[in-house]
Amino acid sequence: MTPDLAPGLTPGLTLAQIIAFNLTLLAAMASPGPAMLLAIRATLTGGRATGIATGLGLATMAAGWTAMALIGLDTLFRLFPWAYLAMKLAGAAYLLWIAFHMWRDARTPLDPGQTAAPPKRHAFRSGLLVNLANPKSVLFAASVLVVIFPGGLSLADKSLIVLNHLLVEVTAYAAFALLLSTKPARDGYLRLKPLFDRLAAAILAALGLRLLLGR
Questions:
Q1: Which of 6, 19, 32, 41 could form a disulfide with 117 if both were Cys (CB 3.0 to 4.6 A apart)?
Q2: pTM
Q3: GO molecular function terms here (predicted)?
């Protein structure tokens, strides 16, 4: 049965798919990887403007990885049908690996000092380069796209997904920078880090299992 289309979306997409994609993005962004450490360090040492500019650079490159994954996956799967199964297995293993480490390290204190803050004038470029140099970004994008969205997406569908990705990350990093620049929010985030990490781990693990076990 074909799911009902959500108002305002293209014929190939549903609101449920967009929501699932956005929740997964937010869960992944919460993980203490290079991107989040850079965003935290930029905000704590450079202030709101630096944090927002850094987040914009991170978001732009992350959305670019999603665009490249969308463009390349259809061609790859048409030429090599076995590549779809390989991508599913690799993607599921990667998502479960992230979830395991997030859950295991949930109580490990987060040390923003491990990542140097960029100068304010170079904040956007620094964010862009961090995600450009992170090969895990494209694997994550490809894994999520395979499990959430159907094949044969139109150019309009793909453009909407990329734009949505960009807007979600820009909004999240901007909100994070605004909140983290205040002492109560900063202290609260660090105090509740174990809860946030384990919620994010549960979401990523469920997605990985769905990818692994689904047809």
A1: 41
A2: 0.69
A3: amino acid transmembrane transporter activity
Q: Nearest-5° angle of CA 63, CA 110, CA 47?
A: 65
Interaxial angle between packed helices 155-180 and 15-29, expressed in degrees from 0 to 180 and rounded to the nearest 10: 40
The predicted pLDDT at position 201 comes to 82
Is 22 inside a domain boundary?
no
Question: Are 193 and 110 contacting, i.e. CB atoms less than 8 angstroms apart?
Answer: yes
**What is the separation of C-alpha 6 from the centre of its chain, rounded to a whole number of angstroms?**
23
The one-letter amino acid at 178: L
Is 13 within the bounds of a domain? no
Return the number of other C-beta atoms located less than 10 Å from residue 8's C-beta: 8
The owner of tokens 């259809």 is: 74
Domains in the chain: how many in total? 1
Predicted local distance difference test score (pLDDT) of residue 72: 75
